[in-house]
Each structure stands twice: as C-alpha cells, then as structure tokens.
Design a protein that fits this description.
Length: 108
C-alpha cells in the first residue's frame, strides 16, 4: 500500500497541470480587470503545491505565467480604475454645467 501512494506522489503532475491551465486562463483574461489577477493567484497556488511535491516544468511554467498575469493584471486594473474615476469626474462636471443653465454648449 505504501509503494502505491509513493509512486502516485512522485508521478502525479495534476497540481502542475492545473497551475498551467489557470496560468493560461489568467493571461487570456488579463484584459478583464481583476480577473487575470485572481486566476493568476490560483495558478500560483497550484503550481507552488506541485513544486513542493515534485519540482518540474509544469510547476515552473505555472509559476511564471501566474506572476506575469498578476503583474499585467494589476497594471491593467489600475489603468481601468483610473479611467473610470476620470470618466465619472468629467460626467459630473458636464452634469453640473447643464444644471447651471449652460445648455447644449456646455457639453462641447
């Protein structure tokens, strides 16, 4: 019984494969604010588990893709949030101008 579990532990790449799959998904969804970061973190967790059991190319690939997605996703999320804030400020300015009687000329 011990031999079977030992063989399975050393030959099992499931966490590494899952880490790579989440790494690929995180890179695909990096353009969706926060989604790439979340998927990247999940991929890193699975890849790190694989690395603890048996360090192999699956674990290494998952870790790399996860970290790249977290970095790119964080940058994109910051740009997205800044854009939303800027849009809301401009919208509020135009709304105030309309309320003060600026008419259609205030929108230009």
């Amino acid at each position: 019984m011990k031999e079977e579990s030992g063989e399975k532990k050393h030959g099992d790449n499931s966490c590494g494969v899952v880490g790579v799959v989440f790494g690929i998904l995180s890179l695909v969804f990096v353009i969706v604010p926060f989604a790439g970061v979340i998927l990247g973190v999940i991929g890193i967790i699975f890849s790190y588990k694989q690395k603890k059991v048996m360090a192999n190319k699956w674990a290494k690939a998952g870790l790399w893709m996860g970290w790249i997605a977290i970095i790119l996703g964080t940058i994109w999320s910051i740009v997205y949030v800044k854009g939303v804030i800027e849009f809301m400020e401009q919208y509020q300015e135009q709304l105030r101008a309309l309320q003060q009687g600026g008419g259609a000329g205030a929108l230009a």
